[in-house]
Amino acid sequence: MAKITFMGAGSTVFAKNVLGDCMLTPCLQNAHIALYDIDGKRLQESKMMLDNLNACCNKKRAKITAHLGDKNRRAALRDADFVVNAIQVGGYEPSTVIDFEIPKKYGLRQTIADTLGIGGIMRGLRTIPVMKAFADDIEAVCPNAWFLNYTNPMSLLSGYMQRHTAVKTVGLCHSVQVCAKGLLENLGLGDLQPVQWKIAGINHMAWLLEIAKDGKDLYPEIKKRAFAMNDAARKKNGKKHWDMVRYEIMRAFGYYNTESSEHTAEYHPYFIKSTHPELIAELNIPLDEYPRRCIDQIAAWEKQRNELVHNKKLKHERTHEYGSYIMEAITTDRPIEIGGNVLNRGIIPNLPANACVEVPCLVNRNGVQGCYVGELPEQLAALNRTHINVHLLTIEAAATLKKETVYHAAMMDPHTRAELTLDQIRHLVDDLIAAHGKMLPKFR
Predict the structure, then answer these.
(1) Residue where a domain terminates, one of 147, 173, 199
(2) How many of the other CB atoms lie within 10 Å of CB of 35?
(3) Both 211 and 327 in a single domain?
(4) Is 314 part of any domain?
(5) C-alpha–C-alpha distance, residues 248 and 178, integer Å
(6) Tens of pLDDT along 89-117?
(7) pLDDT-based confidence at 88, cuts 50/70/90?
(8) Strand 32-37 to strand 146-149: parallel, antiparallel, or no bridges (unpaired)?
(9) Opening angle at CA 170, ends 3 and 167, nearest 5
(10) 181 and 100 within one domain
(11) Closest of 205, 77, 83, 200 to residue 149, by C-alpha
């Protein structure tokens, strides 16, 4: 019987997806599922939801236990085979609000702020200490467990765990699975599926290196349609669509990237510019998108709670999330391929060896193993390196607690350094650290 520990189990909808998938996976149906959270109310709601799902969908019945707070964390983790991480440190209030509102005072605008940018750096710095505590417990009570990290900033957190702990860690993001499908459907090419594709790079900026149907390269037709769509949309009164920024990146650099246009807009110095404010509307860039989503999700939760927590006939269909498939492959030794975030170590030779990269991975009884990709086209590697600079410096800041290194990380962020001076960046970092207070470690 496998044991699956879910950290941040108060994320009820996501817990349903990953753990519901496990309940539909034969080798995992009788697992011990240990739920851990620091919010007792949300933890209990997730327990009730999973109890309903267990009764309705799982013939073998999993054992489900709930564990509240730091004092019960080791009990949740003890003898686990798999640890799923879905925490968010600081939540919408106060942390996300701080991440957006203080940079605005400096004229620095963001869309999502969970992966890169000054908001991504702060989210990483307040999350790494919590994950370090998880790692200490895992090394003590379940040292052979695989740690499946779903929490952003993916490259920062997974890279920290891979380099500064002994925990077997893979970072997981569903943008790889949906990249080619979403691109084709938006361009009216959905009927071509299934297609062959190859993706590699870093999380949220992995590249669709190849896409073909029966050996025919689809990129020429994709580019023809994408550029025509954007040209029309950028005209006065043109019809906007949701993927304009990524199409412009593809036009400039030759390849499509995995993560959405609202994310991509803040990953580069080209789009959210005080010197060219007209681009915000022209390219349909949703500033402050993540806070809006948070507010909408909080408002919608009351209805969702009743549908999930109190539904005695709750159903589930297995999703495309990698979690259950990884557990199944390791448990049964039936190999699968996933897109995972692992340490580079030469997988992509023209990216730093100590970077966390998103690449094809083989999963079997030996765990998750990154597969050799080779060099990326140099312009793509160059764009990735602008992010990796920030990743490595933020990880170093978290490991050393040197404020100067936090400054360096922010100074290397492509969007931040395009908008602010060096003095402004230092003051912004100081203001953010002060506002976060005890949510951050003490930097020297």
Answers:
(1) 173
(2) 24
(3) yes
(4) no
(5) 19
(6) 999 999 999 999 999 999 999 999 999 99
(7) very high
(8) unpaired
(9) 65
(10) yes
(11) 83
**Is residue 119 exposed (0-12), middle (13-18) or buried (19+ Cβ within 10 Å)?**
buried
Q: Which residues are catalytic?
A: 174
Tell me how many domains the chain contains. Answer: 2
Cα separation, 111 vs 244, whole angstroms: 14
Separation between Cα atoms, residue 315 and residue 324, nearest integer Å: 17
What's the pTM? 0.97
Task: Pull the structure tokens for residue 192.
Answer: 């071509």
Question: Do both 406 and 343 map to the same domain?
Answer: yes
Count of CB atoms situated within 10 Å of the CB of 378? 9
Residues 198 and 138 in one domain: no
Has residue 161 been placed in a domain?
yes
223-276 confidence digits (pLDDT tens): 999 999 999 999 999 999 999 999 999 999 999 999 999 999 999 999 999 999
CA distance 372 to 349: 9
Long-range contacts of 132-136 (CB under 8 A, 24+ apart): 132/160, 132/164, 132/165, 133/70, 133/73, 134/7, 134/73, 134/77, 134/83, 134/85, 134/167, 135/161, 135/165, 135/166, 135/167
Q: Are residues 159 and 190 in the same domain?
A: no
The encoded tokens of residue 45 equal 């709601």
What range does the domain containing 26 cover? 3-91+114-173
Residue at 137 is within a domain: yes
Domain termination site, one of 141, 173, 205:
173
Contact 290, 112 (CB under 8 A): yes
Evaluate whether residue 298 is within a structural domain. Answer: no
Sign of the dihedral defined by the CA atoms of residues 228, 229, 230, 233, in that order: positive
